[in-house]
Design a protein that fits this description.
alpha+beta, Butyryl-CoA Dehydrogenase, subunit A, domain 3, 4-stranded antiparallel sheet
Length: 382
């Protein structure tokens, strides 16, 4: 399977996702047939280890496929993206954990809620006991496993950010996903009630950040030396950019219809200008993401370790791509007038989904700008 194969398969699903968008939004999760289509197309296995039937393709491929799917529907593209991302993440766990996930079912899907939320994690003999509620587990309804993360303190040592692999039998889905946008992702909370997680299903973010995750010892592709925070966000940012690209196309059709009805109206010039500026912003957003993802992969392939500075740049570029997508979406949506607010108009869902997806913590521009500015100043001093 190549990059071209993956992108072509994603493109074939675009009209199908578009047709199912309203139903997914109503259900507040993906349709069963959509998940089946994503699995059949191989889009959930883009970064899965080859020894389990995956393709081990670069992060830039996930980004491009996610942008392509976003042209069909944001929610369904988002879940496809996280399934692909979390296959990569599961590949960083110790070998036995990977065999637990894919040994009998190579097509197993994984959801996640990895940011620390202050739940109770007890260190016990042979592993940890988890108790609490983890939010925003996109795609959880169809996932076979869930990765959760939290801070763990042992004695006087500094807290460690650990990730835990939990089978679906040990989790409870909490029906709390009622949102103004991205409703079709099914990003509910998951509840764990004193669930024991053996040590081999535990992963330290310190090891991942150092490019030394235990899974990288058995999965030798350079991809598996990529840290998560500051890097994986580029794939998430790809979804709203793809949605914005679809808005460009839809708005061009809207303007063409207006021009055909009244080619002499002065309002057309303003619409042309909005279209041109928005198209330039969305093109720039695509380039920001793809250049960052390709640069990271080139470094990994060359044997270079990705460091905090690389992560800060990736966070900056991904978050700013989202700023550009939001600007374009707002400019186009407000020019659609009263017709744009009908639920039957795809522009209103795209507008809502772009704004909802880009409030994700990993895509927050204020935080990304702060980190980048601090780094730039420190580099100037040295």
């Amino acid at each position: 399977m190549t990059r071209d194969d993956i992108v072509a398969r994603a493109a074939r699903l675009v009209p199908i996702l578009r047709e199912r968008a309203a139903k997914a939004e109503s259900l507040r999760r993906l349709l069963d047939e959509t998940v089946a289509d994503l699995v059949a197309a191989g889009l959930t296995r883009t970064s899965q280890p080859a020894r389990f039937g995956g393709y081990e393709l670069g992060w830039d491929v996930i980004c491009e496929a996610s942008m392509t799917l976003g042209r069909g529907d944001a929610s369904q593209a988002w879940v496809a993206n996280v399934y692909a991302e979390h296959a990569f993440m599961a590949a960083l766990f110790p070998d036995q954990a990977q065999r637990d996930v894919w040994g009998t079912n190579p097509e197993a899907l994984i959801s996640a809620s990895i940011s620390p939320v202050g739940n109770r994690v007890e260190v016990v003999e042979g592993g940890h006991v988890l108790d609490g509620r983890w939010p925003f587990a996109s795609g959880v309804h169809h996932s076979d496993w869930t990765i959760v993360g939290d801070l763990v303190r042992t004695g006087d040592t500094p807290a460690r950010h650990l990730f835990f692999l939990v089978p679906k039998a040990d989790r409870e889905i909490v029906d709390d996903w009622y949102t103004a946008g991205m409703a079709g992702t099914g990003s509910t909370s998951v509840k764990l009630a004193r669930v024991f997680v053996p040590a081999h299903r535990t992963l330290s973010n310190d090891d991942v950040a150092a490019g030394a995750a235990p899974g990288a010892q058995v999965n030798r592709n350079p991809l598996y030396r990529m840290p998560i925070f500051g890097f994986s966000n580029l794939a998430l940012a790809s979804v709203p950019v793809g949605v914005a690209e679809a808005m460009i196309e839809e708005f061009a059709r809207f303007v063409a219809h207006r021009a055909a009805r009244n080619p002499a109206t002065p309002a057309l010039e303003a619409l042309y200008a909005r279209l041109a500026e928005s198209a330039a912003e969305v093109k720039a957003a695509r380039l920001l993401i793809m250049n960052a993802a390709k640069d990271n992969m080139d470094k990994l392939v060359a044997g270079t370790r990705l460091d905090a500075a690389d992560g800060t740049r990736g966070m900056q570029q991904g978050a700013y791509a989202c700023v550009l997508a939001r600007r374009a979406a707002g400019r186009l949506f407000e020019a659609c007038g009263a017709h744009g607010i009908y639920l039957s108009n795809v522009m209103q869902r795209a507008f809502r989904d772009i704004y909802a997806s880009t409030v994700h913590a990993g895509l927050n521009w204020d935080r990304a700008a702060l980190h980048y500015g601090q780094m730039a100043v420190e580099y100037s001093r040295s």
